[in-house]
Amino acid sequence: MEVKIWGARGSAPVASPDFSHYGGDTACIEVLSNSGDALLLDAGSGLGAYERALDGALRPSPPILLTHLHMDHIQGLPFYSPLYDAKNAPVIYGPRFSPDRTLKEELGRLFDGILMPVKIVDLPATDMRGLKPGDAFKIGSFLIETARTNHPGEALAYKITADGWTFVYTGDHEIPLDEQDQDKVALNKALLDFIGGADVVLADCQFDREEHLKRPGWGHSHFEQWLPEISSRGAKSAVLMHYSPRYDDAKVASMLAKAREKAGSLIVSAARPGMRIGAGGVIAEPKDRRACPNCGFYKKLGAFSDARAVFSALLTEARRRAKCDAGAIYLVENDELSFSASQNDTLFPDSAANKFAYMTARLPINGDSVAGYVAREKKILNIADAYAIDDSAPYSFNSSFDEKTGYRTRSLLVVPLVNARGKAIGVLQLINALDNGRPAPFGEEIEKTVYELCSIATVPIERSLLVTDMILRALRTTASRDPNETGRHVRRVGSVAAELYHRWALEHGADPEELIAEKGKIRLAAMLHDVGKVWIPDKILKKPGKLDNEERALMQEHAALGAGLFDDAFNEIEVMARDIALHHHARWDGKGYTGSKDIVSPSGPEIPLAARITAIADVYDALVSKRCYKDSWDPSKALEILREESGKHFDPELVRLFMEIQDVTRPIYERYGDEKEE
Ligand code: C2E
Ligand code: SIN
Ligand code: SIN
Ligand code: SIN
Ligand code: FE
Ligand code: FE
Q1: Using a 6 Å CB cutoff, which residues line ligand 1?
Q2: CATH number 1.20.120.430 given to 482-671
Q3: Helix axis angle, 445-479 to 249-261, nearest 10°
Q4: Which fold has domain 2-284?
Q5: Staple 655 to which of 114, 202, 374, 646, CB 3.0 to 4.6 Å?
Q6: Each residue of 341-381: pLDDT tens digit?
């Protein structure tokens, strides 16, 4: 005899990559005897998986034995084709303890023409047989015995014997937490005694202990409860199932690991689709269908060309997987670590548009900080409490961020970003793992996952940094002629445009992932707004005084000339760069210029959004910076001009939003300030 799992989930089916190992389909178990007889236990959504595996082969359905009639144990029935095929229809068995209605009448509540379009009277499958606790009978070579379980309503467990061994499938059963209710205690004792003589027990473990304490009387048990009961009754192997639909693979795996610690000689397994079970327990498991658990993340990174967008994706994914409150990324720059990105649900729930994003902080690559140590050693550190690091450790915790912000760092998981050549390009620092909302240490099992995410992200990070670097190098052809057009100027315009877009996208309810991708594009594309100035003669570009009309007309051509560089663009960033170059001197009132007499400058919302945004970032930067033709102005004076020009030169909504992001623009100007030439 062999038992095969088709569905192991409890309560409701789930479908998500995070549930693919232990499966999302609800209860369905196939039993095969050596002589070729077959049975199905329960008809949850796993019955669909069973039928799909038959691949259309028409054959009589095995009998179906239902433990009880709760939805998760019958929801596969309506979609099971043999039910509609008189020749192949199954005999259906299920609990009927009271004589007032037949099993067919009870199932007729589902097949009633309302919950299901088909009525039970129209079903060709007519053979439905009610069972009582204590019934024993044979189907082919199987001996089948039943017992009542402690579950709301009428519910049965099945004991099945064939080919010299026996297993019990408990269906849904609660081992009571308190001994007060005599009926339940007696019911439980009878069921546990029923297990006696079985080699293998498939048992309900919907909950972990904590959740069971919150839901006593719901008719389900928790993992560890079964172990002493099953071993004391002589079984060799326990297969746990009927997991809460809230428990993802990581959760079930950790419950299994905990259960195994306490299992003694009992072999404990967690049921999953495709698992095959014999007299000694699990015989075989399918290969994990999720062959590449991180492929989704890898593909997602493909949408991001900008380093900060990649940082954001890495922080988001690593924090989601490690379930922690905060995280930061440091990059190796000039033999130091430079703080480059952070997320923190406590300090800044909307992590991106915050004044910390451009914070300038540097750490030496040594043991003075945890991140510095990890960058030097290229080894993972998993620290339970940052403030309890032993004095003898070769690294210490730098608490300056906590001191500055009032944040309290506890647990840390610090992972190096190591490139293909074995060089550390940076460090990912995850902070404060959470267990039910409370800080906890990072588990060992998450280290490998986070390390993998870091490995995957390293290539896109290096590539995106290279893209930025190449843009800056290309722009030096203009910068070398106009010392004010430095890399820092275009970085400021790029970042301010990106943050203004972010603010705008939040206001317009953009999808968070699209927002990050779009924000990355605008950051890069806006850096190229003035690339056309490379064609403007020095005597105009560097003229210390005011331009005359002819010079001004020539100067204005920089817009169309820059756009011409992207005439054959198809990449989305290049298309955006073309829009921005051509229209960054467009005006809301239509009195702007494109620098080409063939292209009329648009007005109002006709101006591409990215160009309207860049116009504000560009003019603000021109105003507060020193130019060969003007002095630098006070930020407050610059903002005043923008306000005055609202609705004339600039999109009034964007001017309003620009005023709201001043706590972000200030750190941008500190990070990419003019005093530190590149
Ligand atoms: P830019 O220096 O990057 O300036 C970009 C834009 O900022 C200007 O676009 C203008 O809209 C705004 N802006 C700059 N300075 C001031 C100012 O003092 N007051 C106000 N209200 N707005 C200002 P615009 O005017 O189309 O100029 C485009 C580019 O032409 C400038 O780029 C600069 O490279 C050049 N340029 C403009 N005016 C002069 C000038 O008087 N002398 C020289 N040598 N170059 C100029
Ligand atoms: C697992 O693959 O996580 C273990 C499954 C089992 O042994 O039940
Ligand atoms: C930074 O240094 O600002 C982050 C990296 C980048 O955006 O190029
Ligand atoms: C974020 O918004 O979360 C970071 C992405 C970026 O700043 O480009
Ligand atoms: Fe159930
Ligand atoms: Fe310009």
Answers
A1: 543, 546-547, 555, 585, 618-619, 622-623, 627-630, 641
A2: no
A3: 140
A4: Metallo-beta-lactamase; Chain A (3.60.15)
A5: 646
A6: 999 999 888 655 567 888 889 999 999 999 999 999 999 99
